[in-house]
DNA sequence: GCCGTTTTCGGCCCGACTGTTTTCAGTCG
């Protein structure tokens, strides 16, 4: 896709224009870049289909932008960008990744010291040639030095399920402070994005009784105490900043945390603002402007009078909108849908009645079937499905037909035992079978037919050519014993891209065969949000599973549920919101 | 440079914090 390449160039042009102090144009280029990244169609295809006219129908793309895009598609270059780069031949995208370095400082560093890239910057820091520069100084040089160090250690954005438990530890510490009256996670963590850049907390500090109610100093002392506590947390390696209402730190684990403290009357507006996304905020602030109002983190204002701010619901209502769930706030159509009052009634974690993709110690899993079942009961589930790997996967000690039938008997006994004790819980018996290269399943059909359900997935020869891979998948999905297609695209967040698949075709096959698509809650997070939305639109049913290999991983369901919500999924799109009997009836 | 149920001209989201140029530019979210 050329979209990302062109977007990258537009971002760069925006930076160059910022350096030249050109007004408003940088914003226009940034918006065009964001827009290109957001659309799912390839600009090259759009151009072939409808020429410049169709390009200009894209949000933020006008005459000049379509000029640039046409030029890039034809020549592979954009002249304006080449000219800028000639004047300032530096690795801009790389250098501005250093915390505290922006385009203007980068320009000075090039002009004064000839710094073109990270390597040059490191050398200059070592020689202490930065501090004497006009506009820089000792502290700036030290910040650059530390920024470089952190950049080297950085693994980029973290998987949500890796970072949320760490964030919640800090959350609990802050929540326990007597000075803290209210606290919430904000940012991409609250929106449930699959990867997280930094962790944001929003806090209301308890008013200090010493001062009069409503006085500006009312909460100042407690606010300061919370700030002091925050920057002194264990694991804090660097304090980027600490003021009266806002602090930012870098953690030893390699990510940043931000804390913002606001008065109670602004809590809702601040939560709305701090949750983002930025694109959603810009959209909501524009609605405010259209109504002659002003929206900031302090509230929604008519002139200097605050008309909403205490809760998010209040802010949205005053803008003429229903409440929009954080997972939807990406400026991907949620505002228009909200205006029409047709937002989806999103599935919730508490709607989930069981988990069908769980492994036991019969194969490579860690815990026994009974222990997995007990953990599922503790989560309030009505059932758990044991779906161990099958024989082709030797590394996971996959089960063959004989062992599967033996496992069936074992599960039958467990269920009989529950019944005797009056425990209303059921263990379902499935397997996670392998789709072999020719599309057949590695377990005989007559055995598959004896299980409660069958999950099938691609676990080998991942790098097949598209047509061949699709034939393979199609054959498996058409198998009347295959109920669920596991981790359909094969991607692993931050590690592996999706296979060469045709998702539209998968949707059509799923629709025609009644095959359920899996939303896998582990580091796969597969399906991703956009695909969930498309599946829902096609009426294809999905299931949220954890792919647990030990009991603790059952808790990953939270992330799969968030992923489903980001894909606009409702309760009736997700089959494991059904009781066991109905769920089994909904399968092939 | 883009955009428009108040506009084809005149706006563009909004604010915190730091370091240094001592009054505000640069950076960040």
TrEMBL record:
<dbReference type="InterPro" id="IPR002008">
    <property type="entry name" value="DNA_pol_X_beta-like"/>
</dbReference>
<keyword id="KW-0548">Nucleotidyltransferase</keyword>
<dbReference type="InterPro" id="IPR002054">
    <property type="entry name" value="DNA-dir_DNA_pol_X"/>
</dbReference>
<protein>
    <recommendedName>
        <fullName>DNA-directed DNA polymerase</fullName>
        <ecNumber>2.7.7.7</ecNumber>
    </recommendedName>
</protein>
<dbReference type="InterPro" id="IPR022311">
    <property type="entry name" value="PolX-like"/>
</dbReference>
<dbReference type="GO" id="GO:0003887">
    <property type="term" value="F:DNA-directed DNA polymerase activity"/>
</dbReference>
<feature type="domain" description="DNA-directed DNA polymerase X">
    <location>
        <begin position="1"/>
        <end position="330"/>
    </location>
</feature>
<dbReference type="GO" id="GO:0042578">
    <property type="term" value="F:phosphoric ester hydrolase activity"/>
</dbReference>
<dbReference type="GO" id="GO:0003677">
    <property type="term" value="F:DNA binding"/>
</dbReference>
<dbReference type="InterPro" id="IPR037160">
    <property type="entry name" value="DNA_Pol_thumb_sf"/>
</dbReference>
<dbReference type="Pfam" id="PF02811">
    <property type="entry name" value="PHP"/>
</dbReference>
<dbReference type="InterPro" id="IPR028207">
    <property type="entry name" value="DNA_pol_B_palm_palm"/>
</dbReference>
<dbReference type="GO" id="GO:0005829">
    <property type="term" value="C:cytosol"/>
</dbReference>
<dbReference type="InterPro" id="IPR043519">
    <property type="entry name" value="NT_sf"/>
</dbReference>
<keyword id="KW-0239">DNA-directed DNA polymerase</keyword>
<dbReference type="Pfam" id="PF14716">
    <property type="entry name" value="HHH_8"/>
</dbReference>
<dbReference type="InterPro" id="IPR029398">
    <property type="entry name" value="PolB_thumb"/>
</dbReference>
<dbReference type="GO" id="GO:0008270">
    <property type="term" value="F:zinc ion binding"/>
</dbReference>
<keyword id="KW-0808">Transferase</keyword>
<dbReference type="Pfam" id="PF14792">
    <property type="entry name" value="DNA_pol_B_palm"/>
</dbReference>
<dbReference type="InterPro" id="IPR003141">
    <property type="entry name" value="Pol/His_phosphatase_N"/>
</dbReference>
<feature type="domain" description="Polymerase/histidinol phosphatase N-terminal">
    <location>
        <begin position="354"/>
        <end position="437"/>
    </location>
</feature>
<dbReference type="InterPro" id="IPR050243">
    <property type="entry name" value="PHP_phosphatase"/>
</dbReference>
<dbReference type="InterPro" id="IPR016195">
    <property type="entry name" value="Pol/histidinol_Pase-like"/>
</dbReference>
<keyword id="KW-0227">DNA damage</keyword>
<dbReference type="InterPro" id="IPR047967">
    <property type="entry name" value="PolX_PHP"/>
</dbReference>
<dbReference type="InterPro" id="IPR010996">
    <property type="entry name" value="HHH_MUS81"/>
</dbReference>
<dbReference type="GO" id="GO:0006281">
    <property type="term" value="P:DNA repair"/>
</dbReference>
<dbReference type="Pfam" id="PF14791">
    <property type="entry name" value="DNA_pol_B_thumb"/>
</dbReference>
<dbReference type="Pfam" id="PF14520">
    <property type="entry name" value="HHH_5"/>
</dbReference>
<keyword id="KW-0234">DNA repair</keyword>
<dbReference type="InterPro" id="IPR022312">
    <property type="entry name" value="DNA_pol_X"/>
</dbReference>
<dbReference type="InterPro" id="IPR004013">
    <property type="entry name" value="PHP_dom"/>
</dbReference>
<dbReference type="InterPro" id="IPR027421">
    <property type="entry name" value="DNA_pol_lamdba_lyase_dom_sf"/>
</dbReference>
């Amino acid at each position: 896709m050329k979209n990302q390449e062109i977007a990258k160039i537009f971002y760069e042009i925006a930076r160059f224009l910022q350096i030249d102090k050109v007004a408003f144009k940088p914003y226009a280029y940034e918006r065009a870049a964001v827009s290109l990244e957001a659309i799912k169609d390839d600009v090259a295809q759009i151009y072939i289909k409808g020429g410049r006219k169709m390009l200009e129908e894209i949000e933020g793309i006008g005459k000049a932008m379509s000029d640039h895009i046409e030029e890039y598609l034809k020549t592979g270059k954009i002249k304006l960008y080449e000219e800028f780069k000639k004047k300032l031949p530096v690795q801009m995208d790389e250098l501005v990744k250093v915390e505290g370095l922006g385009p203007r400082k980068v320009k000075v560093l090039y002009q004064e010291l000839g710094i073109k890239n990270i390597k040059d910057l490191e050398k200059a820091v070592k020689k202490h040639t930065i501090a004497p520069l006009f506009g820089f100084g000792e502290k700036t040089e030290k910040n650059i030095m530390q920024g470089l160090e952190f950049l080297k250690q950085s693994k980029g954005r973290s998987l949500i399920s890796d970072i949320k438990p760490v964030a919640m530890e800090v959350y609990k510490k802050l929540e326990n402070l007597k000075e803290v009256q209210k606290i919430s996670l904000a940012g991409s963590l609250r929106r449930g994005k699959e990867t997280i850049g930094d962790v944001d907390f929003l806090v209301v500090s308890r008013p200090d009784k010493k001062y009069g109610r409503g006085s500006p100093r009312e909460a100042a002392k407690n606010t300061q105490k919370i700030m002091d506590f925050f920057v002194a947390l264990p694991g804090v390696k660097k304090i980027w900043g600490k003021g009266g209402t806002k602090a930012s730190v870098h953690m030893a684990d390699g990510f940043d945390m931000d804390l913002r403290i606001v008065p109670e009357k602004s809590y809702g507006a601040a939560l709305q603002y701090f949750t983002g996304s930025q694109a959603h905020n810009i959209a909501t602030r524009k609605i405010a402007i259209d109504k002659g109002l002003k929206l900031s983190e302090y509230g929604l204002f008519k002139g200097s009078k605050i008309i909403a701010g205490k809760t998010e619901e209040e802010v949205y209502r005053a803008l003429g909108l229903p409440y929009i769930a954080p997972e939807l706030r990406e400026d991907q159509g949620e505002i228009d849908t909200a205006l029409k009052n047709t937002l989806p009634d999103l599935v919730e974690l508490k709607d989930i009645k069981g988990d069908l993709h769980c492994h036991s110690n019969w194969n490579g899993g860690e815990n026994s079937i009974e222990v997995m079942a007990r953990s599922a009961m503790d989560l309030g589930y009505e059932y758990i499905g044991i779906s161990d790997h099958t024989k082709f996967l030797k590394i996971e000690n996959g089960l063959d037909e004989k062992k599967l039938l033996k496992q069936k008997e074992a599960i039958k006994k467990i269920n009989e035992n529950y019944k005797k004790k009056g425990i209303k819980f059921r263990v379902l018996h499935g397997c996670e079978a392998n789709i072999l290269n020719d599309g057949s399943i590695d377990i005989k059909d007559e055995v598959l037919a004896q299980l409660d359900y069958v999950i099938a997935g691609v676990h080998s020869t991942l790098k097949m050519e598209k047509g061949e891979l699709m034939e393979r998948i199609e054959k498996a999905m058409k198998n009347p014993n295959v109920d669920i297609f596991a981790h359909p695209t094969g991607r692993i967040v931050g590690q592996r891209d999706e296979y060469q698949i045709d998702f539209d075709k998968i949707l059509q096959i799923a629709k025609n065969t009644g095959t359920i698509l899996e939303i896998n809650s582990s580091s796969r997070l597969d399906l991703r949000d956009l695909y969930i939305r498309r599946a829902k639109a096609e009426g294809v049913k999905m299931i949220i599973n954890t792919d647990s290999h030990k009991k603790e991983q059952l808790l990953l369901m939270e992330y799969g549920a968030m992923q489903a919500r980001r894909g606009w999924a409702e309760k009736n799109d997700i089959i494991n919101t059904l009781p066991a009997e109905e769920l089994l009836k909904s399968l092939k």
